[in-house]
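User: what does the whole thing look like in 3D?
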Amino acid sequence: MSLIVHKYGGTSMGSTERIRLVAKRVAKWARAGHQIVVVPSAMSGETNRLLGLAKELAPAKETAAYQRELDMLASTGEQASSALLAVALQAEGMPSVSYAGWQVAIKTDSSFTKARIESIDDKRIKADLDAGKVVIVTGFQGVDPDGNITTLGRGGSDTSAVAVAAALSAAECLIYTDVDGVYTTDPRVEPNARRMPRVSFEEMLEMASLGSKVLQIRSVEFAGKYKVPLRVLSSFTPWDINIDEEAKSGTLITFEEEGASTMEAAVVSGIAFNRDEAKISILGVPDKPGIAYQILGAVADANIEVDMIIQNISKDGKTDFSFTVHRNDFARVTDLLKAKVLPSLGVTDFVGDTKICKVSIVGIGMRSHVGVASKMFRCLSEEGINIQMISTSEIKTSVVIDEKYMELAVRSLHKAFDLEA
Ligand code: ASP
Ligand code: MG
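Assistant: Here's the predicted 3D structure for the full assembly of 421 residues, as structure tokens:
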């Protein structure tokens, strides 16, 4: 008998019929002798619908007062799906109880719409499990020190599930979704993408931060910090599939280095991409101490995150300075540059480009192999794709290219690194 956390995404919870199937699957696991805690997302589309209603009444604002109400509102989606699942389980003859985040309590800080979990009290959950109940805990939400409801950012139910699993020292956290695991790249872009039976935690972290949408990045960070074994699997298999078979399906996120190296010498494990960035280049900035700080310090002070940064060698005491930000921050950054930064640098010229994308190759094997990046560059050059920026870390190489070549780049790299099914 093990304590296992199941997380079900919005599509898995998308209708009463789907919720009934989730209840049957959960009941099967509980009847096999496991203690089960379920963390559901809101029914698909519900969070967007709720937030859309608020926008109809008042345009989005950064004020704490407004953000607080968004959390009050959006958290109801998970409250509804959790209660519905409890009802469905009871209809299956399985004792169950659902709790909102504040009832558990899942304590967070006060950053509305992007709160961080600080602690989880396991008493109530444990008592119910010991009483033979399936316990359902709302995903995506918590409560701040003043008793306000908070939410954890879009996709935050993944993080709730991992945090609950960590707090309960669960044997495994099963993330049920509408795909059957983590793929070498998005199968919508490359139909020959392959499911990875295992992926190392570090690779998963890179893939999530580089744009793979399977897991919220914070949930992966959390899993790493607390060593929670995670598995991504499908809720669209027949609910009565053999439980041992189900327990081995999907993709296991593994912490064993050994597991990683036996992953058949795949130097590159996956290709990630991200269309959410924009590039800004400031031309002819004076090449002297303090310039990078003058530019990026102002951007950081405005609470805008910078991803890639490039500074060229200088010519005649001048250099070009480029960086990327999230596309949603592009207008704010250009306003800031025009108003503050450029005048103080004595520069007038800058170029903004929102039609870029970042494509990355990720693999633990890159640590011990040379020539991986150059193979990537050769592959892109053979397709006539110009590289605008490059950044590397121990286990990834990313390039910024013109957005219109994104699919071509992903497919050619997927092939060049032998990732096809
Ligand atoms: N319902 C929330 C969202 O749509 C949280 C989640 O599904 O993980 O972002
Ligand atoms: Mg999700």
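In plain terms: The mean pLDDT is 94. The two ends are 36 Å apart (CA to CA).
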